[in-house]
Amino acid sequence: MSYPLDPYAAAKLNRANAGAYLERIKLPSSLLDSPPSLSLLSTLLLSQLEQIPKDTSPLHVPEAQWNGPSTPIKLGSAFTNMPLGISSFDRIVHDNKGAFCFSINASFASLLRYFGFVVSELVGRSFKSLGNDPSTHPDGWKWGTLTHQVLVAGWADCPDRYLIDGAWGPGNLAKPIKLTTEPEGETIIGLNEFEAYRLVYEQLPLSPSQTPPVDSIAGYTLYRRFAPIGTPHTLPITTASPGYWSPLFHTLLISVPLADYMLYHHFSASHELSAFTAFWLITRIIPGSGGARRSMMYAEKEGQGTRAKVYTTGGPEGRGSDEGRDVEWVEMETGTVKPYLVKEFGFKF
């Protein structure tokens, strides 16, 4: 891939490919003539998250390995096997597979532009102590590198813009959330009463012991609310409400050109410090479940063997707990994982 001559040119699906994408996410072709709206954006996002998994498997298994004799799956990086941007269209739409954020969100953006949405592709800094309260946990405000792509969408006759994310994974916000510079931010309930999220315009939050940057600009931090298990969230959420806010990521409202995504993609798919080379994750929201999520997770840890854990989290049944239920175990061999991906996630090989 060479450097693009027009780095901010935005990919947009034609009608035929947009129709194929809608079929992939189980939406009717009658939507092809719909004008952009918050309702349409919400529908497309939820169906995207229900049908297209976040999927790190291309980093670890070259495509040819699936078609040969059963072999052990070793975590690492088959770097050239993970598509970038809209080059993932065939993998996502025709092979019913997933990819990671730099593929999924870019492809989703190209679908949204077909409908007339104006979409900016941004890069985010992930929080590395997920689920913890940074004000009390020893990790504090522990931030990682710029390794997550997110989107901001708007349309011509709407004064508001919305952050959306089709590829975060567990704990994901499955609704658009409005950008605002008001100090209190924007707070919404997710797909069920045990999910709540807040988007705040602020400088990157840091611990008092951390050195502040010499120069910085404000961005948006997306937070997830944690409360005692079984405690539903109600608005407004105040300092007196049970629980705490834990960040997911922080992003700057600056459109990122394709060449820079090539750099982020290369680090995420190949560097020894990248989390993606060290774990296997395939995950999506269970359709019609109110936010329950089915995931397949594996990391090489001493004493845990070579089996992937498949489990369900979230949804009304989870009552705010991230504890896995309906647990199954799958041996990390191509011959056992392949049919499981077909059965559980709809992959085509």
From TrEMBL:
User: For this protein, what is any one GO molecular function term?
Assistant: acetyltransferase activity
Give the matching InterPro entries: Arylamine_N-AcTrfase (IPR001447), Arylamine_NAT_domain_sf (IPR053710), Papain-like_cys_pep_sf (IPR038765)
Which Pfam families does the record match to this protein?
Answer: Acetyltransf_2 (PF00797)
Top-rank taxon = Eukaryota
The record's family statement is: Belongs to the arylamine N-acetyltransferase family.
Q: Can you say what this protein is called?
A: Arylamine N-acetyltransferase 1
